[in-house]
Specification:
Blueprint: E1 3-8, E2 13-17, H1 22-31, E3 39-42, H2 48-59, E4 63-66, E5 72-75, E6 83-84, H3 86-89, H4 99-106, E7 108-112, H5 125-133, E8 137-141, E9 144-148, E10 156-158, H6 164-174, E11 180-184, H7 190-201, E12 205-207, E13 213-217, E14 226-228, H8 233-246, E15 249-253, H9 261-269, E16 273-277, E17 280-284, E18 295-296, H10 308-316, E19 321-325, H11 334-341, E20 345-349, E21 352-356, E22 365-367, H12 371-383, E23 386-391, H13 394-397, H14 403-409, E24 414-417
Parallel strand pairs: 2-15, 3-14, 6-7, 10-11, 18-19, 22-23
Antiparallel strand pairs: 1-23, 1-24, 3-5, 4-5, 7-9, 8-9, 11-13, 12-13, 15-17, 16-17, 19-21, 20-21
The structure holds uridine-diphosphate-2(N-acetylglucosaminyl) butyric acid.
Uridine-diphosphate-2(N-acetylglucosaminyl) butyric acid (EPU) binds near residues 329, 371, 372 and 399.
Length: about 425
Amino acid sequence: MDKLVIDGPCQLAGKVRVSGAKNAALPILMACLLAESKVTLSNIPHLKDITTTIQLLASMGVDVLFDEKLNIELDASVLTSKEAPYDLVKTMRASILVLGPLLARYGEAKVSLPGGCAIGSRPVNIHIEGLEKMGANIRVEQGYIVAKASRLKGADISMEPVTVTGTENLLMAAVLAEGITTLRNAAKEPEVTDLAEFLNKMGAKISGIGTDTLVVKGVKSLQGIKYDVIPDRIEAGTYLAAAAVTGSKVTVTHANAEHLTSVLEKFEEAGAKITVDSDKITLDMIGRTLKPVNIRTDPYPLFPTDMQAQFVVMNALASGSSTVEETIFENRFMHVSELVRMGANIQVEGNTAIIEGVAGLIGAPVMATDLRASACLILAALIAEGETVISRIYHIDRGYELIEEKFHKIGAHIYRAN
Ligand code: EPU
């Protein structure tokens, strides 16, 4: 099994090109199931979760082609299966996103019920209850969600708590439903907005995009289009956090600073100098001292849970104490015990990490437990004295494109070993 080996401490410098957003690309790929003609997608990142999604769509009969510029063409005009099997769903929970489109376009779907995962139990009750409100008949049989509907009907659906993929699934179902669907307390994450813009470009009638109330007027069919996926705000934020912990200056390019407002504010509060110039964001920490910042994760536009682990590392090295409160997932502090093994002084009480900054970290063998936890271990390793070996890095390959190449290019001593 692959490992990442990092020799610290490293000083970083230069530019990193941000890839397309994983969490926008996934629902948009699934939404291709709704189109009656060919869709061409660009800025799709090369990641394990994307390969899994393409495998899933291909297993249903979607024709998938890569052109010479690595754009992806998907033709879902004829499907041979409406099933998402356990073997694929167990490797990627986002497979649940085929449920809404399949039910809306074909009136049937069989999708393995995702289990819990390292960061929490992550139920999908809101996805199911919303589809039932739209007239679907849903049973769980032998671990599968078996759903049927003649034609889905518009409904007034209120979601609690705010759910990103729940909003996306119901949005994809609503675009082909008969009548008006209102989704209340909808997620406002840029990835949800990108999906809604994509659906409208295909012919859907969604209003209220970017707000917490989405109103969808169902249409009879959607047509294929060309679409460019938004940049990955979490990948951008992760490289900026790497500059912050190493006292370096790094620019991320092809980024969208508007999607990172709450994160950039926290970087500034932590003592970094941030400069935004069109699609470039520079974080300059040279000669500056990291200050502790209190963090509380919340739905967009507030501070994202997917940047929590990276800020735990920054706080672990800041002079002073801080708290990081996780309100989205019940078990998203598994990186803390690994950071403690590297010399960090952190205690977790309930959903809050209490952090006392230390002067430095020391390299150690550590284990990645989930995607963002693995990113935070790389950040810790970049500043730690000596060698850190991170195992179970399949987690990181799910969400960060060419991570060792990108870090190597800006000066990190990092390589992959097995
Ligand atoms: N929830 C329910 N019932 C539901 C759905 C969600 O109770 O039916 C709860 C969850 O248990 C959680 C909260 O609602 O406590 C929010 O979860 P959400 O549904 O928003 O999470 P998700 O859609 O499963 C997406 C991202 C995550 C990201 C979260 C929060 C994708 C594919 N995944 O997950 O990304 O952390 O939103 O922003 O979009 C990652 O990229 O590393 C990652 C985990």
